[in-house]
Design a protein that fits this description.
Blueprint: E1 2-4, E2 16-24, E3 27-32, E4 36-41, E5 57-61, E6 64-70, H1 71-76, E7 87-93, E8 96-102, E9 104-112, E10 116-117, E11 128-134, E12 137-142, H2 144-151, H3 159-163, E13 174-178, H4 182-194, E14 199-203, H5 206-220, E15 230-233, H6 242-251, E16 260-263, H7 272-277, E17 282-284, H8 289-300
Parallel strand pairs: 1-9, 3-12, 6-8, 13-14, 13-15, 15-16, 16-17
Antiparallel strand pairs: 2-3, 2-9, 4-7, 5-6, 7-8, 10-11, 11-12
Amino acid sequence: MENNKDGILLESGTNEVEILRFKVAGELYAINVVKVSELLHIDNIAKVPNAHPAVPGVSLIRGEVITIIDMLQVLENKKNPNIEKAMTLVCEFNQLKVAFAIEEVLGISRIRWSDIQKPNEITNTSLVIGNINYKNQIVMLLDFEKIVMDISPQSGITMDRMASVEHRDRSNYKVVLADDSPLIREVLLKTLTKAGIEHMKFFNDGQEAYNYLESLGEKHGESFIDYVNILITDIEMPQMDGHTLTRRVKEHRILHELPVVIFSSLITNELKHKGESVGADGQMSKPEIDKLVQVIDELLN
């Protein structure tokens, strides 16, 4: 496996990301390394009755029963005939552990989020977050959360969580949100509207959000708080990631007192220190949308 990096990426807020490149059906794909807890060959799979076509079964990994997802089925609509000998990426996000069966691991590379291009209108699919030009080859960064949610909708933000949000007058809140997922932006809009929040401005990457906030600071000085009083951001976004966005806000001479909440599938006990290191005022995993409203209340009251 090829590595193309200068040491391990430990510092947060550098606008860099380490991607693990892999193949499925000869095509090149990638995943954010922080989602991958280990790489291994599975040697036993127990079939699950009436499972989704992309779920060949479960396997016992380090004493835990982990669901296996066949990426050949997901991406090419073909069953992997050698699934029990496949290499798997064991991942943790959205408070779940899942193993993705792939063809071959190619290596780890460090790139900048600004090097990831958004899919254009013609080639955009719901499973691709962005395209990476790696040594004159296109590597597609996949939306693994969307893959899991398509298979198991209850693993994501559920209607029960949204329904538990209590409505009250929050019309004085002015919220800026940055998330590259149209689905999550729609869920946030519906949920925060239900909670009574009327003033929301959405951006689909961190750079756009920062440019807007910086323009408010430059134009209005400390009175920028009259136009925005909290920022909610995802972590994984093209152009500028959420950790970098948070760090730049907290280091800005005017914006530094703006509360920032990181709302991401990557929030785990092991990774919370990354958000803390850049000054985030709150962090929570994306299924916890009901708790998001509570945190907003705590920070603004």
